[in-house]
Amino acid sequence: MQNRPGRSPRITISDVSTAAKVSAATVSRVLNGTAKVDPQLVDRVHDAVRELGYRPNAAAQGLARGEWGTIGVLVPDLANPYFPEVLKAVSAVARAHGRRMMVMESDEDPALEYELVEDLMRCCDGVLLASPRMPRAELVDLLGRDHPMVLFNRVVAGARVPSISVDFTGGMTQVCGHLAQLGHRRAAYLGGPPASWGNDERVRAFEAARAFGLEVTVVECGGSTSQAGYDAVAAVLASDATAVLAYNDLVALGAIARLRELGVGVPDELSVIGFDDISLDRVAHSDLTTVSVPRDELGRRAGEMLERLLVNDYSEEPLYLPMTLQVRDTSGLPAVR
Amino acid sequence: MQNRPGRSPRITISDVSTAAKVSAATVSRVLNGTAKVDPQLVDRVHDAVRELGYRPNAAAQGLARGEWGTIGVLVPDLANPYFPEVLKAVSAVARAHGRRMMVMESDEDPALEYELVEDLMRCCDGVLLASPRMPRAELVDLLGRDHPMVLFNRVVAGARVPSISVDFTGGMTQVCGHLAQLGHRRAAYLGGPPASWGNDERVRAFEAARAFGLEVTVVECGGSTSQAGYDAVAAVLASDATAVLAYNDLVALGAIARLRELGVGVPDELSVIGFDDISLDRVAHSDLTTVSVPRDELGRRAGEMLERLLVNDYSEEPLYLPMTLQVRDTSGLPAVR
DNA sequence: AGTTCGCTTGAAAGCGGTTTCTCAGCCTGT
DNA sequence: ACAGGCTGAGAAACCGCTTTCAAGCGAACT
Q1: Closest CB from B63, B79, B229 relative to A59
Q2: What is the nearest CA distance from B295 to chain A, expressed in angstroms?
Q3: Which DSSP symbol is given to A10?
Q4: Number of H helices, E strands in chain B
Q5: Which tens digits make up the pLDDT trace of B124-138?
Q6: pLDDT tens, A154-185?
Q7: Per-residue pLDDT for A4 more than 60?
Q8: B29 to chain A nearest CA, in Å?
Q9: What is the average pLDDT across B272-278?
Q10: How many CB atoms lie within 10 A of CB B32?
Q11: Whose CA is closest to B157, among B133, B142, B132, B139?
Q12: Which of A333, B171, B187, B209 is the most exposed place for a label (fewest CB within 10 A)?
């Protein structure tokens, strides 16, 4: 900042101290309220600050204090409506604790994540890993770096790291119960990104389906976007499923778009159920039957976990928030074939 | 960082220099490639870095270099799908230039923005103001701070600041042409947040309507959410409009939800047109007739503008990207009353 | 062979704050 | 009236890294 071509020189604490005729230490004390200062000096400092338009340099403060006043969040895809809502909540918590929020996106490329997290660790007091796709080994390596970190939508067995996720089993149980009650016997699951831990968990949770006499075939679609859902419809139709459960709402909506093109009635010929409840919001929701995830609460809790972690070295058991099945218009009685 | 209770001491450049038996200056030179260094020393440094797991402290680098390596973005609402897409593009550009992205959200509270921007200026090389709602006077004050800044979705006449927005007039002309061609004579406009510059511009652009013999009544709904649209339906119905143009898609969808509840057919009894084209994506789009805004390009261009600004003190004319009317299912012939 | 030149490297001076340390000055107790 | 204890302000050290500056060294040139 010593060298800002064409720009006015930055105002530093010593400018203020000169103007206020006090030492830099006093300016710092006044601004941070860390010690008692003569009211007269306080006024002089405030006047000088106002007059000069002084703003402390965040980098210098960070360096001196040993804290950046920043938390970092890694997300796979900002375009996936799931994450902005989480970010919103995290940001609010961070702000409430006087911290800023840095955001990085891997664009669903697991290979990029490692580097991004390393970068976040260089400039953030704590890091929130939202739905990290990276291989377990890399993740464990990063977690071992002894840097405050919270795992979101992923749980690593044995890792002593605060983690938060949702109760996939509970959600699946509701879905399977719903489908079974409608009379379905065979369902297909449209899997999401191969590296997604949440995807594995959903598949695992299908164990619940058995109890309801529901048979589930897993159809890989390889992505979390509606395009992926759209493309995977053929494979779904090839199975004899009467209901499809999608990795998330985007995939479900993509599938529905394709089904409509093909003239396959939803839910008359095929029930479709999504995941996440990514409606635009409460009022303008879609008519998709889906499993709702409390994203704001998830984000808030995650933010608070991280904040606690930054204060004391608190570590806790993984937290699983409950999901709720939202029965709407895309699930119905099985087609008679 | 000198004092990290319970955590292992941070590894600094001097640890590396000691381990590699070179000076800190040399470590810095090797890591940044700023000067030629004996290959043997280079190897020793790299070995030491790897062995110790050294990562340069971003705050210290920022301080020494006079650059934070960070850009800041202020958005009104992360939950509004408009912004994440912009952020995604901005983030990609920033990353391509080796910069990180800091995000702050005002939650649609204009009174908060000033403070947030000041904070961003303390820790970012450049700041992108996305759809700032703050009063013009405050904005001008901030712009006068001589800090690299780009204005997004707002243009301040006379301010020498790179700005980017969309061609509201062009978009409105298309909408009005479309409605006029269908035979509409009276339309209502559901206004958005009172502090939104874009809202004013949309209203202003209605001048275009006149040329098509279309009369437009402005109905305030006061928000940018679907709830706002939902609540404003009564006022719309009270007018004798045969078509409604909403501030954005969320408002439009909220209105449609309410209209459906009231049994008012869309578009048979009332045409509804949105703004932004906030469909979940290309495949799973809604059936809303809307004016599409190229958000990714907008974000990309904005990011590039900021990047240019950071290199040289380049300032340019406001850039207006074109909008495209997407005619879908919610607009049709006017009802015969 | 003696200088000068050019390169690489280490020492040291910042960058802009915070915090410890030190020292006046004042108040209190005897 | 004087020693001791407090209090509040300034000087200086430090945070971790970059960059200027100076020095050392070998090569090249006269």
Answers
A1: B63
A2: 11
A3: P
A4: 13, 12
A5: 999 999 999 999 999
A6: 999 988 899 999 999 999 999 999 999 999 99
A7: no
A8: 19
A9: 94
A10: 11
A11: B139
A12: A333
